[in-house]
Amino acid sequence: MNTRIALILLTALLPVLTACDPPEPEAGPPLADAETLALVNDVPITRTDLFTYVGLEAAPDTANAEDLLDELIKLELLRQQAVAEDLHQEEETRVLLRNLETNILASQLIERRTEAMQFSDAEIEAEYEARIEELASEEYRARHILVPTPEPARDLIEQLDAGGDFAALAETHSIDASASEGGDLGWFVPEQMVPPFAAAVAGLEPGEYTREPVETRFGWHVIRLEETRDVERPPLEEVRPLIEEILETRRLRAYVEELRADARIEFPIRPQQ
Questions:
Q1: Which residues of the chain have pLDDT under 50?
Q2: Fewer CB within 10 Å, N- or C-terminus of the chain?
């Protein structure tokens, strides 16, 4: 748990938890230490247990601390009864517990390695430049008319050649949701469109429309490019957290591959397809 979060939780809950601590039983062992909030058949429930039960994202409402502790006591009673009935020895339960342990330990290891990672300014800047290069440098605003077959698309192109109004034709003939807007698709970068549509738009100059119908999985398009503009690139400081996440993921992936390379992995029984 983040130390700052833990301290906030402890400060917020301490008065209530102290007030709701059950009295020390007359018989049996004393409270293990100052962290112990309750003993359930001699099994301690601690403040750490309570914080973990609440979760790491937000502190519990101090007014509900006693209710939360009561929930933990009930869960502990159920756990003890399950053990008494040997449920923990059943194969299905053992598999579930093993998988749970694997997930928790793997998550803890990843979290610790991630927290320890540090990246130089040079690494961050190099990754930023590489990602910037992948971004489109230009975005487009276009209209289109979508029809189900190529024949009406060719007819629409003939009407445009004769001076027809693109927006009016889109409103009348397009089967796309943009018909009510005269086929206007707003601003977009090529990656937002299916490849044939994006390629057709990139081949047009502002004011031009496609001279042949463009086929996509949606149907047949007549496309008019309205205007273009340069894409504003985000500054490094704005996307630094994202860049660091990319670098973290890459290091973690490499770390797992190293573990795999050093391990002896066998497949006595192949999983069924």
A1: 1-32, 56-57
A2: C
Q: Under a CB-based contact definition with an 8 Å cutoff, are residues 243 and 127 in contact?
A: yes
Total-model pTM: 0.59
Euclidean distance between CA atoms 76 and 42, whole angstroms? 11
Residue 126: the pLDDT is: 96
Give φ, ψ of 146 to 5 degrees.
Answer: -105, 125
The Cα 160–Cα 90 span in angstroms is: 75
- Residue of 250, 273, 211 lying closest to 123 (CA atoms): 250
- Cross-sheet strand order for the sheet of 138-147: 184-188, 138-147, 219-230, 214-216
In contact, 20 and 66? CB cutoff 8 Å: yes
Q: What are phi and psi of 238, to 5 degrees?
A: -70, -35
Identify the pLDDT of residue 101.
Answer: 95
Q: Is the dihedral of CA 25, 30, 34, 38 positive or negative?
A: negative
Kindly compute the dihedral angle of the four CA atoms of residues 84, 88, 93, 98, in this order, to the nearest 10 degrees. Answer: 150
The C-alpha atoms of residue 268 and residue 88 are separated, in whole angstroms, by 27
Condensed to tens digits (0 to 9), the pLDDT of residues 145-154 reads: 999 999 999 9
Distance in angstroms (rounded) separating the CA atoms of residues 144 and 176: 9
In the chain, DSSP assigns E strands to 36-40, 43-46, 138-147, 184-188, 214-216, 219-230
Closest CA to 146 of 220, 197, 226, 211: 220
Task: Give how far Cα 223 sits from Cα of 18, 96, 149, 168, 219, Å.
Answer: 71, 56, 15, 14, 12
Query: What's the confidence (pLDDT) of residue 103?
Result: 96
Q: Both tokens of residue 148?
A: 């189900």
